[in-house]
Amino acid sequence: MAALTFNLDFDPLPGQPVEIAPQLVRVTASNRGPFTFTGTNSFLIGDEHVVVVDPGPDDDTHLQALLGAIGGRRVEAIILTHTHRDHSALAPKLKAATGAPLWFGGKHHLSRPLRPGEVDPLASSGDWGLVPDRVLHDGEVITAGGRELEVMATPGHCANHLAFGLMGTPDILSGDHVMGWNSTLIAVPDGSMADYFLSLDRIIASPYERYVPAHGGAIADARHYARALKEHRELRNSQIVEAVEGGAHSVDAVVSAIYPGVTDAIRRAATLTVTAHVEYLADRRWLRAESGPAGWLLQAARPQ
Question: Across residues 55-68, what is the average pLDDT?
Fold first, then answer.
């Protein structure tokens, strides 16, 4: 099994433009938190004219930092990897300040319809009302900031998630699909574990060798890291099946078995991710899951 090591040694220098490759500049917002790590990374691509990728949270200080980094250059477009508000909420203000159009993969939507009585746990995180001026499609090559960007659909964390390969370079902006500081949160029905696995395979097969995520630092030897992430998720599948076979018949019981003694914030994230794994496993009949008013009732796929 490939070793999975998270990199927590990252100094974001919030609000300061940091060049991480020719014509690729990072400006990190000051929205540090348990789900955002050191804050959301916004990116400027280009030289004489630029595009902004993931303008970040609705924060006037970050808006001024971005405008300072832009320095009066023409902004050709504001591009989103996805429509979670820590990435997209500043887009209307930046659009008003620059006149740039907004490009992303379509309005925020769930990965599947809500089931009867189900509540979307990430409903408040989605930027539901945001409408693109241009919808970006998988496989498109767009010219922006004087660079060619390959649009790659990478749903899983979010249904409309896109990654952007900087063609002719080793770099791909991986958004929240792959991050170096932690494994990605998957919460159904906003996201999908099945889509996430498929998207991991796709980014591993791509020609890009360095992932530049929206939280934390760049990931070198990226294919090895993404394979380790996939193995980590596959191991979690096995652990969940073993926990259910051992008598854990609810998501809470599975979380307690796999994540003993964690903080409340980590337990909440673990509960969301375990639920996504349970749905994935039940769809493949690796365990039985019956949805009820108290949550999932879990049973082993084979009699014990």
Answer: 98
